[in-house]
Amino acid sequence: MIIRINGAALPDIGGGAIENITETITGIMSRALGETVHGIFAALNAYSPEIITFGIIVCALGMMVAPIVGNNGKWLGRMFITFWVGVIWRVLT
Prior knowledge:
The chain is mostly helical. It has helices spanning 17-46, 48-69, 75-92, and strands at 4-5, 8-9. It has a two-stranded antiparallel ribbon. A hairpin with a 2-residue loop joins β1 and β2 (8-9). α2 packs antiparallel against α3. The longest helix has 30 residues, at 17-46. It is elongated. The model has no long low-confidence stretch (mean pLDDT 85).
């Protein structure tokens, strides 16, 4: 790190303690965040068939209940989107 006072650069005295501390903290944070994100994606991939099936069942229930409550929603389209996103998800992973 270069420190300037009135435009003149001060010589580096080789301390670097602040830089070492910040590098240590950012390294710990990036490893923790990376492990957390990796764990979330691993869990999503492990349970993806159940997640996809649950999404399709919810859409099917929506298709059955929507006419009863008077809301002819877009449940069929949502079900097809859920199905194809699930197919692509399973093919890519």
